[in-house]
Amino acid sequence: MAEPSLAAADVVVIGGGVVGAAVFHELVDRGVAVLLVERGRAGLGTTAWSGGIVRCYHDDPTLTARALAGWRYFQEFADRTGVEVPFFESGFLYVPHPSRLAHARSVVEGAPEAPMEWLESAEADLRFGHLLNRPVDGAVWEPRAGWSDPIDITRAYLAAGRRKGGRVLEGVEARELLRTGGRLRGIRTGAGVIAADRVVVAAGADTPRLLDSWGVPHDLWAQAVQVELRLPDGTVKDHPAYMDDVHDVNGRPDPESGGMLLGHPTGQRVDAPAGGLPADPEQTRRAVAAGSTRFRWAARSTSLGTLRASECYAPDAPHAPDSPDATTAPARVAPVPGETGLLLATGFNGGGFKMAPWAAGEIARLVTGR
Ligand SMILES: Cc1cc2nc3c(=O)[nH]c(=O)nc-3n(C[C@H](O)[C@H](O)[C@H](O)COP(=O)(O)OP(=O)(O)OC[C@H]3O[C@@H](n4cnc5c(N)ncnc54)[C@H](O)[C@@H]3O)c2cc1C
User: Rounded to whole angstroms, how far apart are CA atoms 314 and 317?
Assistant: First the structure.
């Protein structure tokens, strides 16, 4: 007996996080018949836990170019989608490791189109010394960086894509890939079969497990990202979003709570689906210790909670030829080799919000050839 057919489309997108939603909207915009399936409610996986920071500087000029595309898109979000979502312009301060100062400066100078400037030690001290426990040797300053609300952005992408003719099914889980004679012909979901020649997997931290269950080789894994929400004991004025590679901390102010987000890499692989995880108190201790070395406000701050969620990671790849000692996270936004019609949009190693517009453009280019 033939299986019940739920729908047909040119492309099925699996996953309604910010990445899947951006891909969905971009494909619809380019005239592709797209259907997105989301196991739960769209935007409430890992995306719901995200700080939503959008900044351009990356150690790798290729990633800087991708992030710049994302920043530009978020600046024009209302024009691109027809939906207004505020972008909070806090600025972004990046403190490179002393061994990477010359490289960081060369990335800034090599991308004059990006809104980034190089600050010498004295200038950084003049502008940000009131926040810092110790001077920095140099820094990258992005006056127009900031953040948007990741849930609002995701739902806005979906609303815009629906309005332009795309279909979204929530509470529908993708289970199997359907192939005939090696050719992809769609997916089996909990609610029936969806016919499509192309499938984009944007399932975040669920991606490694999905690929395993389909027998598709990969090098991805799920890892915890944990960010503390700290309340300083006094007023902290004019604090930008930040990343500091000397003490491995990152974050931004959170005007909603009056607190500060403070993240520190966990290095912890997890076996968990996309979305929130229970906090690790030891990681909280490490983050506050690292934050306190850099920022005056951190040592005497108190907890307003912890944001911890799973994220899809891809292995770092060798960096640009001029700096062989560093590595970069390339993401997996590409066709799966040997699996015609199957594409991945994941592996952002904790930075997928800002990269979602670039990823959507890249998938659309791969699908439409333009
Ligand atoms: C605490 C924290 C702070 C962060 N801060 C930043 C930041 O400031 N800036 C930044 O750029 N990035 C940040 N990130 C990273 C960024 O949030 C993620 O890279 C991004 O949200 C990942 O989006 P996604 O769409 O890939 O995943 P998700 O949002 O997890 O979406 C995947 C979706 O797929 C669905 N799904 C899974 N399996 C199936 C299935 N079989 N069928 C149907 N649906 C399925 C899930 O339910 C989920 O909704 C942060 C991450 C965390 C955890």
Answer: 9
Q: Which atom of ligand 1 has the smallest separation from the CA of 241?
A: 8
DSSP 124: H
**105 Cβ contact partners less than 8 Å away, ≥ 6 residues apart:** 118, 138
**Distance from residue 274's CA to the centre of ligand 1 (Å):** 6
- The ligand 1 site (C-beta within 6 Å) comprises 14-20, 37-40, 45-47, 49-53, 173-174, 202-206, 210, 225, 227, 274, 307, 309, 311, 346, 348, 350-354
Instruction: Write out pLDDT tens, residues 193-212.
Output: 999 999 999 999 999 999 99
CATH superfamily of 1-88+145-220+314-370: FAD/NAD(P)-binding domain (3.50.50.60)
Task: Tell me the domain boundaries of the chain.
Answer: 1-88+145-220+314-370
For residue range 146-168, what is the model confidence (pLDDT) as tens digits? 999 999 999 999 999 999 999 99
